[in-house]
Model the fold of this input.
Amino acid sequence: MIMVNTEKIAGKKIVKTLGLVRGNTIRTRHLGRDIMAGLKHLVGGEIKGYTKMMSDAREEAIARMVKQAEGLGADAVTNVRFATSMIMQGAAEILCYGTAVKIEEE
Done:
């Protein structure tokens, strides 16, 4: 599956727009990570546990979006974007969305 954050794909022609596709996941913080984050806050630096958690969440959201696009028979997803929102204290949603399209060689 080709995924781009642009309207066009180099060397390809979009022959059909299938519609909006999206994937999301909601992740909550972990007490152990919070303790480490609190300590890291005192000395500064990257909070690697949270970085990995958010990276994993983005990958899950992408996989869900791709699955939906494949279900529509798409060859690619254009205009891929991410959005993040806080759902409740300590929980965030990662949303990945784009436009499912059929393509062919130019």
